[in-house]
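User: I'm putting together a teaching handout on how sequence relates to shape, and I'd like one worked example. Could you take DNA gyrase inhibitor YacG from Chromobacterium aquaticum, show the sequence you're using, and then write out its predicted structure as tokens right after it?

Assistant: Happy to. First the sequence, then the structure tokens directly below it.
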Amino acid sequence: MSDSVRVVACPTCRAPVRWEPQSQFRPFCSKRCRLIDLGEWATESYRVPAQEESPSEASRGE
């Protein structure tokens, strides 16, 4: 097994984060960055695109 540790960029501030059990907030670099990301989801700044079904499609199971 290799001793190299994967390093990823924090999704919020792009700081390098070591991907290992000791990295408590991974993939984020800190609790602050994790909470900023959560706040973006909570205020609906981030959204997962979806296509709404019409009532007739939902009843047919399509």
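A couple of points you could highlight for students: The longest strand covers residues 7-9. Residues 31-42 form the longest helix (12 residues).
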